[in-house]
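User: Just a sanity check before I run the rest of the batch. Below are the C-alpha cells for the first item. I only need the designed sequence back.
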C-alpha cells in the first residue's frame, strides 16, 4: 500500500488519536469502534481509512468481520521524532530541579 498521508497529519485529529488508543488495547471492528464516538459509523470509517493509509493501523479479516489493530512499529516513528523534544524538556526540568534545590538549601 502506498502511503498518501503523513502520520503526523493522521494523529493531528483527536478522534483518530482516540481510535489509536482504543485499538492499542485490543483489535476492534469498525462497528465496535463507532460505539465509542458520538458520530456516524461512516465518519469513523473515514478516520480508519486515513490511519490505515498511514500504516498506523492494520486490518485483518476474521470471517465476515474486519478487525483493526495498531502497528506498533509505525508508532515508533512518532516516538523518535518526539524524543528530541523530550530530551530538551527533561534537561530544562533537571535545571529547574537544581535551582529549586539551591533555593531550598538557602532557606535552611
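Assistant: Here's the designed sequence for the first item:
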Amino acid at each position: 500500500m502506498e502511503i498518501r498521508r503523513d502520520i503526523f497529519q493522521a494523529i493531528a485529529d483527536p478522534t483518530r488519536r482516540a481510535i489509536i488508543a482504543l485499538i492499542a488495547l485490543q483489535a476492534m471492528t469498525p462497528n465496535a469502534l463507532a460505539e465509542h464516538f458520538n458520530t456516524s459509523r461512516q465518519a469513523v470509517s473515514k478516520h480508519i481509512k486515513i490511519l490505515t493509509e498511514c500504516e498506523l493501523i492494520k486490518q485483518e479479516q476474521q470471517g465476515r468481520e474486519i478487525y483493526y489493530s495498531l502497528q506498533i512499529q509505525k508508532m515508533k516513528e512518532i516516538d523518535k521524532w518526539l524524543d528530541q523534544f523530550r530530551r530538551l524538556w527533561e534537561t530544562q526540568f533537571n535545571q529547574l530541579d537544581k535551582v529549586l534545590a539551591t533555593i531550598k538549601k538557602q532557606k535552611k
